[in-house]
Amino acid sequence: MSAYPTPDDSPENPLSARPDDKSRRSFMKQAGGILGLALTPPLVSQAERLKAYSKTVEGVSEITLRVNGQARTLRAEPRVTLLDALREYLDLTGTKKGCDHGQCGACTVHIDGKRINSCLTLAVMTQGKEITTIEGLAKGEALHPMQTAFIKHDGFQCGYCTPGQIMSGVACVKEGHATTDAQAREWMSGNLCRCGAYPNITAAVREVAKSA
Ligand code: FES
Ligand code: FES
Fold this sequence. Notes:
about 210 residues; 5 strands; about 35% helix; Ubiquitin-like (UB roll); DNA polymerase, domain 1; 7 helices; binds FE2/S2 (inorganic) cluster; alpha+beta
């Protein structure tokens, strides 16, 4: 007799290995169905799901934002940040979420021309203001000079921080805070780059500053 317990081979055990076991087969059928559902690609976008969800939640109100020259309306709770409004409700995913705590600068956008961390800003507070994201920087096919300079100076590796760096760089030059390498580094210090592309980023920002 084996020293180890044998598996319960009764028909009631769903893991029973008996080939003619109906319980096991129906269990596998059910599990397969659930797995199939889980693997089915979503038929609706995140923005559409949020729109449907927001209809069921109290305190949701209509918010109209002016983004890249266009009025965009969404329904969201007052606690929704501008970063989430852009990415999750308006499908503008160029603005990145890094820390979500105001520490990395990946979420930098412009409000009335000034750079801000969109993860620390409530969407409702930005109504009536002009919001510019990385998607609104180029004019059609013509890149913004800062975008061109980043490409020229290879100012990125993985690219995750790049939209925030570029938005910050544009504002930094406009503020007059990129007149020397040291000054540019200091005033761009709120934008972290985990790939360490800092010398190239500084070179790009300085080039645009010199020609401004
Ligand atoms: Fe906003 Fe990091 S995501 S500062
Ligand atoms: Fe990778 Fe900056 S290029 S984090």
